[in-house]
Structure prediction request, 218 residues.
Amino acid sequence: MSTKFVISKGTAVQTDFRNEVLRNAVSILKRDIGTTVTGNGPKNTITLTLNDHGNGDSDEYAVKLIDSEHVEVTADTELGVMYGALAISRTVLGVDNFWFWLDTKTPKHATIEWSDFDSLKMADYHVKYRGWFVNDELLFNNWQYRESGEYVWKLIFETLLRCGGNVVIPGTDKNSHSNRTLAAAMGLTIAHHHAEPLGGGNVLAGIPRFGSIVFEIS
Prediction:
């Protein structure tokens, strides 16, 4: 049995495309393969699979070489499958977690020979919920990079996932609400804004701001 898998322009990424999170995981991995390898190689496949067993309590993923033509990434949760796809991008393809924000150029290869599958494991995080609050996001509105909007927000969520995050506050007030669907489609859990206690409306609406200070009820 072969112990290696060659990633090339001939490598396909497959999944259950009815699942939106898995579709996004495939899109990211296919993009990164397309930007890191330039040569032709054997026709082979990386499959992203959501287990039909397990209780879904853990986002642990497994990466297994089936044979020279097939690698399978499996997990009990959609988020786990996403983490597995991003682990391949980061560790095997060499794509930096902050590649977009740092304008990092990933080295190109004709093909990539992959043989160390056991090293791809989920990190042992100290806390269950890990995420960030996207603040002052109005600054994105006039950014003309690919018309900003959904493309940039997708990259914000992708970066959080690359860093092992699983929770996000996707902006403030109306932006937070409008970005929730996209964040969930990337596999993230939505946390409510500090201005929306217990999921209520924005209690800061109409409260005057002085410089960078906001007076709140806490």
User: Anything to note?
Assistant: The helical segments are 20-36, 78-92, 149-162, 174-185. Confidence is low (pLDDT under 50) at residues 207-218. Residues 20-36 form the longest helix (17 residues). The two ends are 62 Å apart (CA to CA).
